[in-house]
Amino acid sequence: MKITHANEVEWTAVSNHRGGQIEFKTLLIGTEGAPDNYYLSLYKAFADFVAPVHRHNFDQVRMGISGKLNYGRQKDILPGEIGYFPEGQHYGPQAQEPNGDCVGLIVQFGGASGHGFMSQRQLREGFKALSQVGTFIEGTFHRAEDARAAQTARNRDGYEAIWESVNGRSIQYVQPRYRAPIHLQPDGFAWQAATGGNRGVLLKPLGTFTERSIELSQLKLSSSAIHDLPLRAGIRLLYVLSGSGACNGNVWTAGTAIEIAPDENVSLIALEESTLFVLGLPIFSRNDHPAAPAPREALA
After folding, report:
1. Each residue of 11-25: b (16+ CB within 10 Å) or e?
2. Maximum C-alpha span of the chain
3. Is residue 156 part of a domain?
4. What count of other Cβ atoms lies within 10 Å of the Cβ of residue 197?
5. Alpha carbons 283 and 292: distance in angstroms, whole number
6. What is the pTM of this model?
7. Which of 4, 96, 113, 144 could lock onto 174 through a cystine, CB 3.0 to 4.6 A?
8. Which InterPro entries is this protein grouped with (predicted)?
9. Residue 213 lies inside a defined structural domain of this protein
10. How far apart are CA 71 and CA 85, in angstroms?
């Protein structure tokens, strides 16, 4: 188990391959190179943040905490709402203005395809390397004229350019499993008794996605409630929305992030009424094979 408290982490700027200002509080990271590698953080997007229409070769989940998170024309994630952005699915353009600053929770992770997720270390190093031969403008990488003779790649999405620089090959995308990002409004879901019948423990299932069982839910514990989480074959991530308690002897409060390893026994004890967001990452086995890329005509 890993545990990090947001109030103990400073806001920092990261590689700005998009446009405008954005800061992060890195709370948890996975294992570089693993198909279920992930990055969990709080993020703060300022009014000048912009990004073009783009897609990812990984999955992404965002939850609004304050302000409005824009992810397309007239599309905003409000506080308490959740967006699931599946790999290969286009979204954008993003423009915070005139919505103003916003704060949210973001989890980026290797999707069901098994193609994994580029680590923040790789992203930083790739950004630094490409900054020597070009510039990033409003989310697009523009290669300098004197570098084009040796590098024929056209101007392209900033993340794609970094990924290809780090991996030494062209990026590919799987056929999207969904036609659009999925925008969830948890307040519209009803609470149910959690598995195991523990008194004072309620579960709000929000959805299970893809053949790898990516699971989104919320968990509510009344004061003094005890809940033994069911075993799960994949990584489970928790983010405390409110309240306080302990997890296998480790204290948690609002803003705490917790990673639970596959098949790890974990018991939650609430010291006061508490609500947690729960994300189950895709479940892989040794016999799994990565999904094939989309047909060439569907590639960007």
Report:
1. eeebbebbbbebbbb
2. 68
3. no
4. 7
5. 18
6. 0.87
7. 113
8. RmlC-like_jellyroll, RmlC_Cupin_sf
9. yes
10. 10
Q: What is the mean pLDDT of each run of 10 residues along the chain (300 residues)?
A: 97 71 93 95 88 90 95 93 96 81 96 91 88 81 63 69 87 92 98 84 98 98 96 98 96 98 97 98 78 47
Are 91 and 71 a contacting pair, CB within 8 Å?
Answer: yes
In a domain, 293, yes or no: no
What would the pLDDT profile of 155-171 be if each residue is shown by its tens digit? 778 888 888 888 888 88
How far is 125 from 140, CA to CA, in rounded Å?
Answer: 17
Q: Could you give the number of structural domains in the chain?
A: 1
123 in Cβ contact with 56 (< 8 Å): no
Alpha-carbon span 79 to 49, nearest angstrom: 18
Closest CA to 116 of 290, 296, 299: 290
State the Cα–Cα distance between residues 273 and 288, nearest whole angstrom. 40
Q: What's the CA gap between 289 and 267, in Å, rounded? A: 33
The one-letter amino acid at 273: E
Q: Rounded to an integer, what is the distance from CA 260 to the centroid of its chain?
A: 16
The string over 219-251, giving b where at least 16 C-beta atoms fall within 10 Å of a residue's C-beta and e elsewhere, is bbbeeebebebeebebbbbbbbbebbbebeeee
CATH of the domain at 269: 2.60.120.10
Domain contains 259: yes
Strand partners, 5: 256
Which residue type, as a one-letter code, is found at position 16?
N
**What is each CA distance from 167 to 96, 129, 175, in whole angstroms?**
31, 13, 21
Residue 30's DSSP bridge partners are none
Q: How far is CA 233 from CA 29, 84, 262, 284, 294, in A?
A: 19, 21, 5, 8, 28
Tens digits of residue pLDDT in 224-263: 999 999 999 999 999 999 999 999 999 999 999 999 999 9
Residue 261's domain comprises 183-280
Cβ atoms of residues 119 and 83 within 8 Å = no
By the 8 A CB rule, do 63 and 277 touch?
yes
